[in-house]
What we know:
By secondary structure, the protein is an alpha+beta fold. Helix content is 35%, strand content 13%. Helix 1 (7-17) packs parallel to helix 2. It is globular. The model has no long low-confidence stretch (mean pLDDT 89).
Amino acid sequence: MPKAVTLAEIEKIFALLEPLGISREAVVIPLRPEHPGRIRRLPGGKFEIIVERDDAEFDAWLRNLADQMRAMTGAKPG
C-alpha cells in the first residue's frame, strides 16, 4: 500500500458502501493509511475508515471491510 490513500481507492470504498445503504457523507476516510487499519463509529455518528497500510492486497482488505461494515450496521450480505 502506498503512503497515501488514493482517489481510486476511496472510490472503491464508496462503491462498496453504496449497496449497504451508507452514503459518502456518513464516512470519514483519512488520507494516511495506518497499521492496523480499522473502522469505528465517531461520536457524531459517522464512520471513520482507516485503510490498512501493510496489506499488499487492497481488494482483499476491501472485502474484509464489507464484512465489517455489514456487522456494524446490520446490513444484509448482497
